[in-house]
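Design review, sub-item: ligand-bound model
Attendees: FS, YL, KQ
YL presented the inputs for the magnesium ion complex:
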Amino acid sequence: MMLKQIYMFDMDGTLLDLAYDDFVWNVKVPEYYVSTHSCSDNDIHHLMHQYHQQYKHTLSWYSTQFWSKKLQLDVVEIHRQHAKHIATRPYCTELLTELTQQGHECWLVTNADIKTLNLKLEKTQIGHYFKHIISSEDIGYAKEDAQFWHTLHTHLPFCIKSSVFIDDTAAVLQQAEQFGLKHLWSITQPSSTRTITATHHYPMLDQLTDLLKFLPKPLKEHDEKSH
Ligand SMILES: [Mg+2]
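KQ shared the predicted structure:
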């Protein structure tokens, strides 16, 4: 069977401005923690740093349920209270409109858990561009885990050679590359409130629509068989 070429997009920092997540996690969550548990700013920053070392790149790291329990706070409610700051990155809808109009199949492939994913889709209204919306919470592994890609590909087969994947996290791109994806892109400035990311191993998109200049050709039947 001929497998399809898919355009897979990360959400936070790729299609959506990471400034929102920075604001909620680095400013609001510590603020609520300090006022609820009457501790100092230093205590929470020390605690968050410790958790960062311990859980970074794991499924727990992306789970609001995990953090709500760990910090004894309603993290989803904090998200809801600040949801007006959720925003797409420049040219996000232009790129998705163009790709879908050209007949390309787009998937959203995110580490966001179901609750924050739904909140972000509700606020940005980009859900309709995607044939499939995949949360690592559903897959059972974070995108930084090799099992994520194997599990995804088992459930929803796609052409590994010709599919495109865009993500702002180097550890995620590395895992996608190990799995065999060839057309990988990173993002120059995931957050509008932070400076430009230092160049890493993957080609970087400054403006999202720049991707349109580099669309790979879908494979022909015989190319796919040789894969
Ligand atoms: Mg991201």
